[in-house]
Every structure is written in C-alpha cells, then in structure tokens.
Amino acid sequence: MLITRLAHLWRNLFRRAAADRDLDDELRAYVELLTADYLRDGLSPELARQKALVDVGGVQVVKDATRDAWIGNAPLDFANASLAMSASL
Hints:
The chain has one domain (2-71). The protein has helices spanning 2-14, 16-40, 45-56, 59-69, 73-88. Helices cover 87% and strands 0% of the residues. By secondary structure, it is mainly alpha-helical. The longest helix has 25 residues, at 16-40. It starts with a helix and ends with a helix.
C-alpha cells in the first residue's frame, strides 16, 4: 500500500502530463463503450453519445474529481496556486 502511494505521488509530481493523458484515454474509452451500448439499443449516434456523456456526469467534472483524489495533488496544486499568486503581486 505504501509503495503504491509513493508511486502515485512520484507520478503526480513528475509525470503529471502522462497521468492526465492516461486519464483522458480512460474517460474517452469509457464514453465510447457507453455510446456503443446505446447504439446497440437502437439510439442514433448523436443521441447515444449525448446519453453516454450524461451518464458519465460530465467529463471535466470527472477529471477534476479524479485529479483531486490523486495522492499528492492537493498540496501540489496549493503550492502552484500560491506561487502563481505570489508572482502576480
């Protein structure tokens, strides 16, 4: 458990772009799977995608919630915001 947490912390600190890309890929794949399910149920492609996006609850909302849950992100985001605010003063 500790090793996993340290690995997540390392990734969030030094490989954040890769973690964000992986999250994007996972969400995109999930929306595509839901869309395919609705297409099999007979919905039009547009309606199937719309319904899949509603089921997910908003891709950006899910991304934000996931990033907030990642170990180490809250302190890092706070530090980044603090530095940005200090630089603007």
